[in-house]
Specification:
Helix 5 runs parallel beside helix 7, helix 11 packs antiparallel against helix 12 and helix 11 packs parallel to helix 13. The protein is 51% helix and 7% strand. It contains 13 helices and 14 strands. The longest helix is centred in the N-terminal third of the chain and has 20 residues. 46% of the residues are buried. It is mainly alpha-helical and 424 residues long.
């Protein structure tokens, strides 16, 4: 991108001392033939690609076809295979994701006009009933579209940007992309506001001005696709800002972690609030799931603007995250603070494996990184050992892993397993 390349330095490769450290060179030797990658996850690249496609077509899509509200428009928030869909309370957190899922299915997977119709009717339902005059979206409406809340947080708005962008690819309707851009600006206003409290964004409320890692990463994950279809100078700078905040402020190079929250001045908290009145949280936590997402989203934006140093930084931050927080046979954990270790008997979100696989595959495509190959093989084996834990009812992380894996593997297959050439 002329005049807009990111100039962040690459991290050092000193990851020694992490508890999950192992030798990776033998893994690469077993799998690579010269500079061609022949197999991954115990399959040929074609078999691995077909595994993702077949799962979508045979399992995920049939289940989610039931989640379309064909009477009023919009979608169920979740569709469990063994339950009837519930359309009575529609949350923007899920509705924007659903517009994206069905638009993406139409554009890239199924070409089914019914999926396009579902996305268009979903967008129309939400524009009519949830959009406010200041380009925000009501967090909840009922099945008929009657308001159930005011706009509470920014996440549903972020997913609406993602959905409108993907829908624009199918409709070529300027109103979709313009509304996506207007919504992005309204999100940015909130994220830098000294009074914004993330009300009902997974927590009741945070201190005014709190900066959260997942805000920047999810926002970036919607801005990168938008900028691939519409080059807007102001949105370009917002995307750069998201990358810079994560790399310069949330990333702690001395401890090799991405802090989950920062104060209103983008600094780590020093005041202990863990026993402050009714507050029951620490300001020093690290989420392995949010961290690995942030890394592949930084990598994706770096690929878009063709900036190898920042792409490498995303890879190295991700490797540091995995070395510190991935436990074989368990999954991706979190940390109570930068100096702690993951608790083997703690809670492991299965959906985090979907994003770990996206991160590894993105690293593999452009560098054949042997650590990424090793982690991909281990993670895929763990993920597939418990198919009953697949988050089939979900509308973002789980389908995105399958969507993006097919995109990446198709490119790798077209190159006969050779690296992309991004690094020259």
């Amino acid at each position: 991108m002329a005049g807009g390349a990111l100039l962040l330095p690459a991290l050092s490769n000193n990851l020694n001392g992490f508890g999950n450290r192992r030798e990776h060179s033998s893994v690469a030797a077993d799998i690579l033939n010269g500079r061609q990658l022949d197999r991954l996850g115990g399959m040929t690249l074609r078999e691995l690609r077909d595994y993702h496609y077949d799962y979508l077509m045979e399992t995920y899509v049939p289940n989610w076809n039931r989640g379309i509200d064909r009477d009023y428009g919009g979608f169920a928030n979740a569709v469990h295979p063994d339950r009837e869909p519930d359309f009575e309370r529609k949350g923007m957190y899920h509705q924007g994701r659903a517009v994206w899922v069905f638009s993406y299915l139409y554009n890239h997977i199924t070409g089914d006009e019914r999926h396009l119709e579902a996305a268009v009717r979903g967008r129309d339902f939400l524009v009519e009933n949830a959009l406010t005059d200041d380009n925000r979206w009501r967090s909840f409406v009922n099945r008929r579209g009657e308001p159930q809340s005011k706009p509470l947080d920014h996440y549903g708005d972020i997913y609406m940007v993602l959905g409108l962008t993907e829908l624009y690819k199918a409709t070529d309707d300027e109103r979709d992309i313009e509304l996506a851009i207007d919504t992005a600006h309204s999100i940015m206003d909130r994220l830098v506001s000294p009074s914004y409290q993330h009300i009902e964004a997974h927590v009741t409320a945070l201190e005014p001005g709190t900066r959260r890692l997942p805000s920047w990463q999810h926002f970036l994950s919607a801005l990168t696709p938008l900028l691939k279809v519409r080059r807007d100078p102001a949105i370009e700078q917002i995307a750069l800002y998201c990358v810079r905040v994560m790399c310069e402020h949330h990333w702690q190079p001395d401890s090799g972690v991405l802090l989950e929250v920062l104060d209103d001045h983008f600094r780590p908290y020093t005041f202990d609030v863990s026993a402050w009145g009714e507050v029951d949280r620490s300001h020093a936590t690290i989420s392995g799931w949010h961290s690995i997402q942030a890394c592949w989203m930084i990598m994706d934006e770096s690929l878009r603007v063709e900036n190898p140093p920042t792409y490498r930084q995303g890879v190295e931050m991700g490797m540091s995250t995995l070395e510190k927080m991935y436990l074989d046979g368990k999954g991706l954990a979190g940390l109570d603070n930068p100096g702690s270790k993951p608790e083997p008997e703690g809670s492991f979100a299965w959906g985090a494996l979907d994003d770990m696989l996206v991160y590894c595959l993105m690293a593999i495509e452009h560098s054949h990184n042997p650590q990424a190959i090793d982690y991909y093989n281990r993670c895929l084996a763990l993920h597939n050992s418990h198919p009953e834990k697949f988050v089939i009812q979900g509308l973002l992380h789980h389908p995105r892993r399958f969507f993006y894996s097919i995109e990446i593997l198709d490119r790798m297959i077209d190159r006969d397993g050779r690296i992309s050439g991004f690094f020259g």
